[in-house]
Amino acid sequence: MADRVRPFPADRLKTYPLRSRPSKVTTAQFARPTRSGDAVRRFLANLPDILAARDLRGLIAAMKSARRKKKPLLWGLGAHVIKTGLSPVLIDLMTSGWISGIAMNGAGIVHDFELAFAGRTSEDVAAEIGSGRFGMARETGEILNEAILSGAREGLGLGESVGRMIARSDFPHRRRSLLGEAWRLGVPVTVHVAIGTDILHLHPGASGEATGKASLRDFRLFCGLVEKLDGGGVFLNVGSAVILPEVFLKAVSLVRNVRPRLDGFTTAVFDFQKLYRPAENVARRPVGKKGTGYYFVGHHEIMIPLLAAALSGR
Question: What is the pTM for the complete model shown?
Answer without folding.
Answer: 0.90
